[in-house]
Write a structure and sequence with these properties.
With 86 residues, this protein is an alpha+beta fold. The protein has 4 helices and 4 strands, in the order βαβαββαα. It has one domain: 3-Layer(aba) Sandwich (Glutaredoxin), CATH 3.40.30.10. A hairpin with a 2-residue loop joins strand 3 and strand 4. It is globular.
Length: 86
Amino acid sequence: MARVEIYTTPTCPYCLAAKSLLTRKGVSFEETDVSRDPQIRIAMTERAGGRRSVPQIFIDGQHIGGSDELHALEHEGKLDGLLAAA
């Protein structure tokens, strides 16, 4: 199974939707809350090519994007392949 990382904040509905999709698929993920440490948000922004919004999702180090992109991959039938690629 691929390594999934997700940068979130506690009150973000898009973060909750992305985590819910991953949980429904039985995927474990590493969650990093960026709300309390500006340095972690800066690191996330650099990794995500300048994107500051949450969630930011990485699968095996590859930047996927946010919740919309994650759900689009699922809708297109491509998410399972990415998650199993490891």
